[in-house]
Amino acid sequence: MRVGLGLFLAVLLGDAAAHGLEYRIDRTEAVVVRFSSDHSAAIANAGYRVFAPDGQSTFVQGCTDARGRAVFVPDAPGTWRLLLATEDGHGAEVEIVVAADQLGFGESAEPVTIGGMGRLTATAAGVGYVLGLGGLLALWRRRSGG
């Protein structure tokens, strides 16, 4: 009974500890809005939010990069709204019209996994831990005379 419970927990804990990170590089059509001051200096690190065509939900939020660019990849046609606010109180509201034919999704690379273990490896590791702990418990009982 104990061994069965131990194996069950090992499988669960092995799966929980074995998650990794995956990334994929997609070549898509992105909308890039560049912000600059009157003197052509880039507005860097300004917060922005992009609202989907429904007008209610925030699609993405972030900060402009060092060149003053706010970037997003729309997933639906319509009028998108970008709100920008700087720390010194300046701001802008930009409407971007995206047509259905502008939603091109280009090539997508194969995903790359960083860290983590596969399910079989995690399960084998969990079983190994349980067997190791069982061996230590048996050794301890034998030495303590119980």
Topology of this protein?
Elements: H1 2-17, E1 21-23, E2 26-28, E3 31-34, E4 47-51, E5 58-63, E6 69-72, E7 78-85, E8 91-98, E9 105-108, E10 112-114, H2 119-144
Helix pairs in contact: 1-2
Query: What's the number of structural domains?
Result: 2
Topology-level CATH name of the largest domain: Immunoglobulin-like
H-E string:
HEEEEEEEEEEH
The second-level CATH architecture of the largest domain is Sandwich
Mean pLDDT figure: 81
Whole-angstrom Rg: 27 Å
Major beta sheet summary: 4 strands, antiparallel
Q: Let me know the number of strands.
A: 10
Largest beta sheet: strand ordering? 5-4-7-8
Query: Helix fraction?
Result: 25-40%
Terminal Cα span: 19 Å
Q: SS-based structural class?
A: alpha+beta
General description of the model:
By secondary structure, the chain is an alpha+beta fold. It has two domains: 1-21 and 115-146; 26-108, Immunoglobulins (Immunoglobulin-like), CATH 2.60.40.10. Helix content is 29%, strand content 33%. The chain has helices at residues 2-17, 119-144, and strands spanning 21-23, 26-28, 31-34, 47-51, 58-63, 69-72, 78-85, 91-98, 105-108, 112-114. The chain has a four-stranded antiparallel β-sheet, with no helix packed on it. The protein is elongated, with a radius of gyration of 27 Å. It starts with a helix and ends with a helix. The model has no long low-confidence stretch (mean pLDDT 81).
